Prior knowledge:
It is a single chain. With 80 residues, this protein is of the alpha+beta class. The model has no long low-confidence stretch (mean pLDDT 89). Strands 1-4-3-2 form a four-stranded mixed sheet, with helices on one face. The protein is 16% helix and 34% strand. A hairpin with a 5-residue loop joins strand 3 and strand 4 (73-79). It has one domain: Roll (2,3-Dihydroxybiphenyl 1,2-Dioxygenase, domain 1).
Amino acid sequence: MEEPVLAICIPYNQETQNSGNGNMLAIAPGSKEKCDEMYHKAIALGATCDGQPGQRIPDVFYGAYFRDFDGNKIAFNHFG
């Protein structure tokens, strides 16, 4: 994915929207390796794991999830 995308979604678990449930910042750094590198850097700086790096949908979507100091959910992802 090479262009910015804005998605507005209903929380997946049907619970009330809050920080990280119904909103999330997603960054596509360009490769699976960059996703891993940036995820591990975030964890090293004190972020909390919210999903280890890995292939989520075979040959389609790779993602790594963490929460920042305020509890906001952030993802590094790669399509492919």
